[in-house]
Specification:
two-stranded antiparallel ribbon; 3 domains; about 5% strand; 5 strands; about 450 residues; hpI Integrase, Chain A; 14 helices; mainly alpha
């Protein structure tokens, strides 16, 4: 486990993968592994454990952070940057290298998907810098860039790591060492240069634009996922019913994928018509490689009578018919085995929807339904005249956000935008009246 990054830095062909290691009592830790040696990279494991895990970040978030760091390490390998050796010499990355690293955050290292012989888009987690298997795949510079949000997340974690690494080293050598002062300036300047050039995620809701499905796309989605619909892309009856229930829950409750996959049967109460979103940390009962995790706060969500009955029927009729589902309590299960439904299976279902409706549902994924819920909530808040402060508080609870989180503000900004629009139109109308009045007096 003590393999150092410097051992791999001289080899440009080194590939990295983010994986989980099982510990006792069901705990798992994510690590970056050198695919050639199979060994975790030491410093990154220390950083993720002491800085991320100890701060309460969820396992899936830590894996995301390490995938970002593996992008950085791959870039260091190609450019022969050995950060440990630089620090020992009283140096850090240069501002030019920092700018190049910022550009690397946008680079896609693999095509996002491929098609199987059946024409279905293949899904699943891939190694960030995994070797390509086909000669037909274009070279890296021809690949389209990643999304702004993905690039921004990469830059965020890379910056956090560089700051940690710099501070950790300079405080170890002490203030009496000349390198202390040199590294403080050089390091901070380089990280500042990286931050200035780093990709910035889009400010969702900044201009009041929709982030969810359009009404037309939503209608197609709901029609296509009706179990009896002729256009339903799934053949298996359980899959049709299960996916219909899941889509309805996503749209009605604004759930994250991890929250839905983490539901147990006992979390649902048909008597009260509620379902509980519960955080279960390091649960040994979850056999999946990527566990269903609740990223935000716990909450109890009320279901409509129709949705409650739909869920009850799925549990009693469809889920119960699968023998493998009787061995565990996870609510949503795989159609053939009855095992807990995995992230990759959920992603595949949405990929099949996109393949079946390439125009209407070209960008449908589980998370866009969370944005769709927020659009619906905003419209309802407008109709009911809900004050912005009250709206923010209710939205934060239903989404699992802290009351002090800035997430709800992305959606409540439209109140300010609407008031600004009204004042702007008023100014323009007054100006038009003055012009018309002046024009009328001139004609006389």
């Amino acid at each position: 486990m003590a393999t150092r990054r410097s051992q791999a830095a001289s080899n440009q062909s080194v590939n990295y993968t983010v994986t989980e290691i099982n510990l006792t009592a069901g705990e798992r830790i994510s690590v970056i592994k050198n695919q050639q040696t199979g060994m975790p990279l030491f410093d990154y494991t220390v950083w993720s454990t002491t800085e991320l895990r100890s701060a309460g970040q969820r396992p899936n978030s830590i894996s995301q952070a390490l995938r970002a760091i593996s992008v950085m390490q791959s870039h260091f390998d190609v450019n022969k940057i050995d950060l440990d050796a630089r620090l020992r010499a009283g140096k850090f990355i240069t501002q030019t290298e920092a700018t190049g690293l910022a550009a690397q955050c946008r680079r896609r290292l693999r095509w996002p998907s491929s098609k199987t012989k059946d024409g279905i888009v293949a899904t699943g987690v891939t190694n960030i810098d995994a070797p390509r298997r086909s000669k037909s795949v274009a070279s890296a510079h021809e690949l389209p860039p990643v999304k702004d949000t993905t690039a921004s997340v990469r830059a965020h974690y890379i910056r956090k790591y560089l700051l940690w690494k710099l501070d950790d080293y300079i405080f170890k050598i002490g203030i009496d060492d000349q390198r202390f002062r040199d590294l403080q300036k050089l390091g901070k300047d380089a990280i500042e240069a990286f931050s200035e050039k780093a990709p910035k995620g889009r400010d969702y809701g900044k201009n009041g634009t929709r982030q969810g499905l359009t009404p037309e796309s939503r209608s197609v989605l709901e029609a296509a996922t009706e179990p009896a619909a002729a256009c339903n892309p799934w053949k298996d009856h359980h899959t049709r019913v299960r996916n219909h229930v899941m889509v309805q829950l996503f749209l009605a409750l604004g759930l994250r994928a991890g929250e839905l996959l983490g539901f147990r049967v006992r979390d649902f109460s048909s008597a009260s018509g509620t379902i509980d979103v519960i955080r279960r940390t390091d649960n040994a009962e979850d056999p999946r490689a990527r566990r269903g995790e609740v990223k935000t706060r716990e909450r109890k969500l009320k279901l409509s009578p129709e949705l409650s009955e739909l869920l009850r029927s799925y549990v009693l009729n469809e889920r119960r018919s699968l023998r493998g589902a009787r061995r565990h309590e996870f609510l949503f299960v795989a159609s053939r085995t009855g095992a807990p439904l995995s992230y990759s299976a959920l992603a595949k279902s949405f990929a099949q929807l996109r393949a079946a409706f390439p125009v209407e549902l070209s960008d449908v994924v589980a998370h866009i339904l969370r944005h769709t819920w927020n659009d619906d909530f905003s419209e309802q808040a407008d109709k009911s005249g809900l004050p912005p402060a009250r709206e923010k508080k209710i939205r934060s609870y239903l989404m699992g956000w802290s009351e002090h989180s800035g997430m709800a503000a992305h959606y409540t900004k439209r109140h300010t935008q609407r008031e600004a629009d009204a004042h702007l139109i008023d100014v323009q109308e007054r100006a038009a009246k003055r012009r018309n009045k002046k024009s009328g007096s001139t004609d006389n």
